[in-house]
Records
---
Amino acid sequence: MKGRLQSVFRLARPLFSADVEYPDEFASEVHSDWGWFPALALWSGVTIVVAAAAAEANRREFSFASAMFYASIAALIFPIACRMVWPGVPRAERIATILLAAVGLFCLRLIHEPISFVDHDAFLHWATANDIMRTGKLFTPNPLLPISPVYPGLEIIATALSELTTLSIFVCGQLLMFVCRMIFVICLFLFYERLSGSSRVGSLGVLVYMGASSFAFFDTTFSYGSLALLFMVIALLVDNRMGKTASWRCFSIVALPVLGGLAVTHHLTAFITAFLLTGMAAFEVARRKSTRSFGHVIAMPVAALIFSFGWSVWTGNPSEDYLGPVFGHAISEASRFLSFEGGRIPFVAEDGTTAPLWLRVTTVLSVVLLCAGLATSFFRALARAGVPVLWDKFPTDWRGFLKWDSSRLVILTLVTFAYPISIMLRMTRAGWEIGNRIGPFAFLGVGIVVAIGIVTFWQKDSRSRLRSGLIGTAMTIIVIGGIFSGSGNYILGSPRYRVSADSASVEPMAISAATWTRQWLGTRNRFFSDRTNRLLLAAYGGQQVVTLLYDKQDLGDVEFSPKFGPLEREAIREASVDYFLLDFRLTEQLPLMGFYFDPGPVYREPPDPQVLFKFNNVAGISRVFDNGYQSIINVAQARDSTDAP
C-alpha cells in the first residue's frame, strides 16, 4: 500500500512543482523566504477576532457592528494585497500569504454559522445527506431540491466522513469545505502561475478572484457547487500539464477520477468545465501546424464531455428540467431590462430594506475598478498569450492571426466577457441568482487578466510604496464589494427574526417546532409550510415537505385564502398533505426575498392574520401544536372528507 501511495504522489508531483520558466524580471521570486508572513499571520488573527466581536455587537444590535465587521475584512486584505503587489517577493511567501487570506475569509464563514447550518442551500444538501444516512441508498427524492440526489458527490463524501469519524454532518461539512477551499486556492495559484510564468501574477490573480461575489460565502456553503469548483480547477491544472508533457498515466490516475467526480457532483460546473476544455483544445488545434500529439490535447475535453453529458443522459436529463426554466426567466427579464421595461432596484430588498450608503458606494466602486482593470489589461493579456495585437506587428494575412503561444490564456481572456453579463443579470429579479453563479467562472478570466495588467501596467516592477498602497486599496475594495454584492448586509445574521430572509429566519423556536414533529408525529409526514420552516421540517424533523418544484402544487394560495372551501380542500387532497405548519409571523412583515413560499409574484403587503385563523372553523382540522407564534394543524381528516366545510 505504501508503495502504491508513493507512486501516486510521484505521478501528481509534476502538477505542483515549480518548473516554470521565469522571465528575468521575475527571477528573484524563486528564492525561498517567509518574509512578512509571520507578521501578517499574527495581524490576520487579530482581524478575525475583531470580526467575531463585530458579530457579537450585531447580535446586541449595536449600530456600528456592520462597519466594524467590514473594516476588519479591509484590515485583513489590505496588507496582504500590498505585499502581493510588491515585486521580488519569494514564491513560498506568496503561496503562504495567499492561503492566509483564504483562511481568514473562511473564518468569516465560521463566524456566520458557528454551531449549525443557517444558509438556505446548506439545508437542501443536508436533507439529501440525511436521506443517505437514513436509508443507506442514493437517489432518494428530495422535494426541496429534486436535482440534488441525482448529483450526490458532495453528500457521498460528507456522509462517508460522518460514518468514519462519528462526527455530525455539520462538522464534516465544514471540515470538507475548509479542505476544498485550501486546495482550490493552491491549484488556482499553480494554474495562473503556469499560464503566466510568474508567481507574482499567480498570487495577484487569486487575490482578484477573491473579489467574486460568491467566493467568501456562497462557495464555502455546504453545497454541491462548492466541491465542484475544486474539481474544475484541478481539471484545468491537469489539462495544462497534459498539453505540455504528455502523461497518459497522470491522465488515467488523476484526470479521469476528477472529471468523473465533477460529473456526479454538479451539473452546471461540469458542463462549463467541459466547454472550457473544449474551447482550449480547439484553439490549440488551430494554433499547431503539426497534427502530432493531438491525442493529449483532446483527451481532457473528450473525457469531460463524455462524463458530464453521459451522466446527465443516464439520469434522465434532470438538468434540462431544472436549469431550463431558470435560464429562460433570467433571459426574459434581462431582455426586458435592456428595453427599459423594468428591472430590480440595486441594493434594495423586496421588503424595502436599503443597504447603507457606504456599502453601496464601495460595491459600485469595486465594479468600476474591475472594469477599469479589464479595460487596461484585456489586450495586454492577449499580448502575453502571444496574440499579435496592439504592441506586435499585425500579420499580413489571416493565417498570422493563428499564431499565439498560450491557447488557455486566450480562452480565459475571452471568458472575461461573462463578467459584464453577470452584472446585467444581477439587475433583474429572476436573473440575480444566475448572475451570482456565473461569477466563479467569469472570475477565472478576470483574476489572471487583471493580475497581468497590474504587473505589466499599473505596478510593473516599481517599488513605490504609494503606488503599491493604492493598488492594495483597490484590491481591498474589490474583495469587500464582492462579499457585499453576494451576501448583502446579512452575512452577520440578524439580531431579530426576519420573514423569508434565509439565515435571518433560522432561529431556535422554529428549530424546536421542527424537532417536535420528529419526536411526536414521526418522520416522513407530508407537510406544507413557508420557505424557511419547510427547510427546518425536512432537516430537523425528517418530514416530507410539499414544494412547487417537486410536487407541482402551490399551496400558498390555500394558506392565504380568505376561506377554506371546496377548491382548497381539493388542492390539499391532490397534494396529499397531512399537516400545515402555520407561522403567524408571516403576517407581520413583508418577505425579504419577495415571496413567502415558492418564487412567484412579489408581495407588496403582508396577509391579513385572519386568513390563518380560518382553519379553526373547519370540521376535521385539529391543532396538534402551538407555541404562540407557530401552529401545526392536522388536515388529513378534512382532506379525505367529502363533507362541506
---
Amino acid sequence: MAQASASSAPTQRAADPLAPGRRMQRRAAALSVLAALLWPVQAALVAWAIGALLTGAAASPVLVALAFAGLGLLRAGLGLLAEAQAQAAAEAVVAAARARIVAAEAARAQDARFGGAGSIAALAGEKLDLLAPYVTRYAPARARVMTVPLVILALAFWHSWAAGLVLLVSGPLIPLFMALIGMAAKEASVRQMAEIGTLNDLLVERLSALVDIRLLGAGGTVMAGFSRQASDLRARTMAVLRVAFLSSTVLELFAAIGVAMVAVYVGFSLLGALSFGAWGGAVSPRAGIFLLLLAPDFYQPLRDLSAAWHDRAAATAVIDEIEAWAADPGPQLPGMGAAAPRLAGPASLALLGCLTPAGVALPDIRIAAGERVALVGASGAGKTSALRLMAGLELPSAGQVIVAGQALTADNADAWRARLGWMPQAPHFLAGSLRQNLTLGRAGDLGAALDTAAVGQVVSAMPQGLATRLGETGGGLSGGEARRITLARAVYGAPDLILADEPTADLDAATARIVTAGLLAEAARGATLIVATHDRQLAARMDRVIELGGAQ
C-alpha cells in the first residue's frame, strides 16, 4: 500500500524541468535562426549594389535601399517574435517547475534530506529563475550556432576557398575553448548554488532562534558567522563572474582574429597583391564585399553562445539540484490534504505489524474508542512516528493501520483526519491571524476551545485579540502560551480523537496542569485520547500505558 504511493511520486517529480513549453522553445529557435539567415540575403544585396557601382553597371540605389530596409524590418519582426516565444517558454518552464516543487513539498510528510526550508525556498525561488536565461538566450543561440555558421561557411567556400578555409580553421577553436572554460564555469556555478542554499538555511535557523540569541547576548557572534558565510558566497559569485568574463574575452579574441584574416585576404586580393584563393582566379569586388559582410556574422552566433555560456552553466547547476531534490521524494502525506466529510465509525484504531518510514518496528497496538492511552519509551523508540501513523500523516512501510474499523489508505486519510485533533510537540503557526490559526478555516464558536485550554486571558491581552497576526514561531507568545494555543486548536470542533505529542514537555508545573486538565476534559467528553510523553505523572492519569521499545 505505502510502497505504491511512494513509487509514483519520484516519476512525476523527476521530469525534465525544461520540458514545459517545448513547442514554444522550438518555435523561438526556428524564428531566431530564420531571422539570422536573412543577413546573408541583405549582405548579397549590398555586395551586388556596391559591386555594380564599382564596375559601372546600372543599379537603382532607391530600390536597393527599399529592399534592404524591407529585409531589415522582416528580420527585426522575426527577432521580436522569437524573443516573445522564448520568454513565454521560459515563464512556462519556471512556473511548472515551481508548481511541482511547491506541490510536492506541501504533500511531504517529513523534512527532505536535500536541505531545510531555506534551501527549498532558494531552489523554488531565485534558483529556478536561472532557468529563464537558458531558455531565452542560450537555447536560441545554440540553434543559431548549429545552422548559421554552416550556411555562411558554404557561401564563403562558394566564392573563395581561401576565405572558407580561414573560417573553417578558426571556427572550431571557439567551441573547443568554450568547452574547456565551460567545465570550470559549471564547477563554480555548482559551488555557488550550494552556498546559496546553505546561507538560506542558516538565515532561517538564526531567525527562528532570534529571541534566544538576543537573550543570550550572542548577537555579535551570530552576525560575525553570518558575515563570514555571506563573504564566502560573494567570493564564489565573483569566481563565477571571472569565468564568464574570461570566456567572453577569449572568444572575442578568436573572432576578431578570424575577421581580420578574412579582411586582410580580401583587401590584398582586391589590390591585386594576391591572385589565389578564388575558384576562378582573383576575388571579384562583389564577392570580396560579400565575404567581408559575412565574416562577422559567421562568428556572431558563436559569440552569442559564449555570452550565454554562463546561463547554461547556471541552469545546469540548478537542474542538478532539482534532480538531487527529486531523488529523495520521502514519505508523502496521504490524501490530498483537503476538506473531507468525517470517516464514519467508532474512533478506534490499531497498528498491526507496522514499520515506520524511518525503519522503526512498532509493536501491535489496539486502542478502543473513548480510551485514554499513553505511549512512553526512550527517545527514538517511535512514539512520534506511531502518532503520525495514527493521524494518517504517514503510511507504514509495512503492516496496516486500522481506523474506525477499516484500513487507512491515501483514499480515506483526509476523511479520517477530519475527525482528529492534533497537538504537535513543537508549536507551529500559520502566518495569519490568531483566529485563522485556531479555526484553520472552519466555522464555529471558539469559546469552548479557549476555555478548555484556559487561554482566554492570553487572547484578550493580545494587541488585536483574535485578529492579532502571528509569525510562524508564534511571536509574542511565551512557550507555555503557545502550547496552550495549540491545545485550543486541537480541541476546537470537538474532535473524536486527540493525539498529543509531548504536551507537557518543557512547561512549568502550573502550565502543565492546565494542559493536562484540558486534555482530560476532552477525554471526559468522550474523545479518544492518545499522548506520547516522557511525563510519568501525565501517563499515570491515562487508562493504559503502552511501552514502546519494551514490553507492553
---
Amino acid sequence: MTEAGLAAVMNSYNELDGVPCAADRWLLTELLRDQLGFDGIVVSDYDAVDMLRTIYHTASSEGQAAVQAISAGLDVELPGDVNFSHLADEVTGGHLDEGVLDTAVTRVLTVKARVGLIPGMAARSAAGAPPDRAEAAEVRRAIAARGLVLLANDGTLPLTPRGGRVVVVGPAADELRVHFGAYTSVANAEMPLGMTAVMTGQVPGVDPATFMFTDIFQPRMPGFDERFEAEARRIHPDAPTALDALRGFDPTVAFVPLGHFEADPGPVLDQAAVTAAVAGADVVIALVGERTGWVGNNTAGEGRSTASPGLPGDQDELVALLAATGKPLVTVVVSGRPLLLDTVARASRAVLLAPLLGEEAGPAIAGAVFGTINPSGKLPSTFPRHLGQIPTYHGHHFGSGYDHPTGTRHGYNDLDDDTPRYAFGHGLSYSTFDVTLDESAEPAVEESDGLLRARLLVANTGTVDGETVVQLYARDEAATVVRPVRQLLGFTRLALAAGETRRVLLEAPVERLFYTMADGARGLEAGDVTVLAALSSDDIRCSRTVPLSARRA
C-alpha cells in the first residue's frame, strides 16, 4: 500500500466477525493506518454507512451510524451525507468527541490540498494537452491483444482467411455490449436508464417507495436488452462486434444465431437443428460467455453473485451439441471471471478467453483467430474443473488444496484429476518458450540487499515471433506458521523473435515473503526458500533453493 502511494481507500460492504467493515476500527485504523502505514482518506462504498442502520442493524439512527463509521476511521460518506450530516448534532449531544471529527476533516483537506483543490494551499497543475485519440486507440488495441488468453489449442488455431467455410454461432457473436463490464462507459450509460425504470415502477419485484441504491443490481429487466445494446453501439459507433471483425478477415464467414444467455429465452436446442445449421462448415466458432455489468439481465458484475459460475442459459448444451456434429470447434469465451468450462474444454479443439476487452474486443478476437495477433495473456485467477473444488487457488497452504510438492494428500474420489481446469498464470501462444537458470556468471539465484534475484535465460523455441510472461514464485520450505506451497513474487513480459534467447533478471523484495507470526509481528524466520521460475503456476521450468536469515518488519 505504501509502495503504491495510495491516497484513498474504500471500505467493503461485508462484515468481519460480526463487525461491518464500515464501522470496524481494527480494520480501518489499527490495521490500515497503524500497521500498514496508510495516511490518506478512507471513503465509504455507496450507502455503506446507511447499511449500518438498514442492513446490519448495528445503528438505530443516522447519527449513530455516522458516529460508528467516523469513529472507526471512515472519513467520507458516499454518495451523499445522509448520515454524516448528523455529525454536528452528535458532537453537541456528547455522543462524539469533536477531535475525531477534526481528524477526519484534516485528512480530507490534506488530500484536497495535494491535488490543488484548495486555493492558496497547493498550486493547481496546469491543464495538460488534449488527449491524443490516435495514441489512446493504439494503447487500447495493445491492451486487448495482450489481454486475450489462449486456454487450449491442438493446432486448429490460427485459421487461414478463406481457408475453408467458417460458421459462427453463439449469443456473444453479434453483441457489442457483452464485452463491457461494470465501471465502463456502457455500464455508466445504462445506469440512468435502469434507475429511471426502477423509480417509475417498470421493474418487476422492486418497489420504488422502498428502493435503495443497491437494489439496482439484482432485478432482471425484461425488454431492456435491445435498448442497452443500442446504447452500447451509440457510444461506440466504430466498434465492431466479434462477428463483424471476423468477416473483416473473411467476408464468407456465415452466422447462425444459436444459443442464449438466458435460461428461458425461446426455442429449445436440438441436435438435428444444430447439425443442420453447421452442415457445410469446415470449422465452427462458438462465441459464448456472460453479460457483466451493473443493471439489466446480467449474470456477473457488481451485486451479481451466482450459485454456480457456469455459462448461463443453454450455452453448455450448445457447445455439447456442436461437438456431437464432429465439426472442428473453436470456442471463444467472453467473461471477466473464472467459469466452469469443463464442457467447453472437452468439446473444443481450441479455447480463447476474451476477458471484457471493451471496444477493441472484436478486432482482438478476430486477429487471434486468424493469426495476426499471437496470444500472450496469462490467467490472473484459477479456473476449477468442478463446482466442488471451489475455493481453489494456486497459493494454498501446505496440507490443503490440490498441489502437494512434498507429500501426498487425498483428493476428490469422484474426480480423476484434482488440479484446476486452467491454473493461475496459464496462457498458451502460437510460439513455444523455455525458461532455464542462467549459470554463466553470478549465482543464478541469490538474496542480496533485501532482494531475491533470479537470473534466467528465456528462449522462444517456436517458429513465430511472440510474447510471454515469465513468472517468479517462491516457497518457504519450513516455518512455525503454515505457509503456501507457492507465492507469486514477480513477473515480466517479454517479446522474443522466433529462435531468440534473452537473459532476464527477475527480482523481488524479501518482504513479499513476510507473514504474521504467532506473536503478531510480521517477518520471516530463518530457513530455506525455494525460488521457482515458470510460465504458469503449474508449469515450473526451473528452481533453486537458497537460505534466508530471519528478519522482521
---
Amino acid sequence: MAALLVTYHLQPEGGISSPGTSPPILTAISSVGGFAVGIHDARAKTRTLAVEERNRELHRTKRELEESERRYRTLAENFPNGAVALLDEELRHTLVAGRGFEKVEFSADDLRGERIQDVYSGEVLERIESNYRATLEGEPTSFELTVQGRTFEFHVHPLTDDDGDVSSILAMSQDVTERKLREQELAKRARQQEAVADLGQLALETDDVDELMEEATREVADVLDYEYCKVLDLLEADDELLLRQGVGWRDGIVGEARVSALEDDSQAAYTLEHDHPIVVEDLGTETRFGGPELLTSHDVRSGISTVIGPFDEPWGILGTHDTERREISEEDVSFVQSVANVLAEAIERQQYRSELEGLVADLEESNERLEQFAYAASHDLQEPLRMVSSYLQLVERRHADDLDEEGLEFLEFAVDGADRMRSMIDGLLKYSRVETNADPLEAVDLETVFEDAREDLQLTIAANDATITAEPLPRVQGDDRQLRQVFQNLLENAIAYSGDEPPTVRVSARRNGSDWIVTVEDDGIGIDPEYQDSVFEVFERAHDRDAGTGTGIGLALCERIVERHGGDIWLESELDEGTAVSFSLPVP
C-alpha cells in the first residue's frame, strides 16, 4: 500500500487518469485492499477460535474443580472419627465436615459459617484461638482438647495464596477418647504390677510386717485412687478383727477400731466366708450384707475386700473403699488379691522365722545343757577312772607273780580298757568345750600351726618311721589351738591306719573361690564304704576295733572345730588305696 501511494504521488497531474497508468494502480489498490480484508478476517477467525478454546478449557477446569471439590467434600464428610474444617482469616468456618460429631451435642451445621468466638467460650475458646492464630502466622500447631467429655487431637496447617501469604487454615481433629482410655488403662495396669513388685521386694527386705502393711494400704489406695484402704487382723478369739493398719480413716481409730467377724451384716464376716474377693459397687443397694459402722461412718459406697492367707486359716482381710460408686474391673480385683498374697507370704515367713528362732533357741539351750552334762559327766568320771587305773596298776605290781597267764591277760585287758576310757573321756571333754573353751578367731599362719602339731607328734612319727611332707600353707582366720588339734587328729589317724608299710602323709592347700581347701592324704588301708557316711559322728569309728585303737571322737571333734570356723570337712577313700581328708576355711 505504501508503494502504491508513493507511485500515485509521483504521477504527473492527470497521470492517474491515463489509460496506461490507472489500471495497474487501481488493480494494485484493490488487491491490497482485498488482502487487507483477508488478513483482518483471518485474524478475527483466529480470535474466535482462541476464545472458543479458552472457553472449552475453562469448562474443563470448572468440571475438574467441581470434581475435586466433590471428592474433597466426600473425603471430608467421611473423615473417620473426626472432622476437617477450613477457616478464613477471621477464623470463620467456611467448610466443616466429618464423622466426629456423633458423640458430641453439636454438628457440622452448627459450625459452618460461624466464627470460633461465636461457638466456643472459656478455656476451650482460649485454647483453640491461641493455636489457630499461631497457624495464621504461618506456624503449624498440634494440641489436644476435651470437649463435652471427649478428647480430640487437633492438627492445624496454614494455607497460602499465590503470593505466599496465609489466607486460611486447615484444621483436622480426631476423637482419641478411646485411645486415651486404653493408654490410661495400660498405664494403670503397669502401675499395679509395679506396686506389687515393689511390695514383694519390701517384703523380702524388711522384718517389720506392720511397715509392709502400712506401705501396702498406701499403694493400693494410690493406685486405685480410692479414699480408704485397711488391713484387718483376725484376733485369736476369731470373733473380731482389729483395724491394724490403714490410710484415709479418721485419726485415732487405726490400731483401735474393731469389726465383727461373725455378724450377718458385716462385710468382713461375709468376706471370711468366701474364698474369693468380694466386690461392692454400691453399698446402698447391696443385699448380701449391710455396712458396718466403720464403713457407714466414713460414707463408704464401693470397694473390694479379700482374705489374707489361706481360706481355711485366714490371717485377716485386706480391703479398699471409696465414697463414690465405682465400676470395678477384674484387673482391679486381681491387683488387690495380689497385694493380699504378698502380705500373706510375708506373714507366713515371719511366723516361720519366729518358730525357727524359737526352735533354734531351744536347740541352743538343749545343746548347752548337753554340753554341760557331757563336761560334768566326763569330768566326774575322771576321778573314779583314775582310781580304777591306780588299783589295777597296784594289783599288777604286787600280785603279778601270783597270777597265771590267763589272769595276767585279764589284767592287761582291764588296764587297756581303762586307758581307752581315759582317752574317750579326754576326747569327750574336748568335744563338749569346742564353743565354750575357745579363743577368738584371728589371723593365723597355718604353716606355724601345722609345725606345732607335727612337733607334738614327734615321738609317734619317729616310732612309726613316718614321712610327712607339706606344701606351703596359707594364712586364715581361726583359733590356732583348735586348728592344731585338727591337724594332730588327722595326722594321728593317717599314721595309725597306714598298714604294714611305713606311713607316708602329704599335706597340701589350694584356693577355691572364697575358701582355702586343706587336704591331709595318706597311702594307708583306706576306709570301707560301709563306714564312710558315719565317720564324723561321735563314737563312730572309721574301722572295726581290730584295725586300730581309735576312740571314735577324733573326726567328730575335727568336724565341730571346722564348722565353728565356718567351713566343711569331708573325705575320699578307697580300701588299700589310702584316704584324703579335706576341710575348708574361709579366705580372710
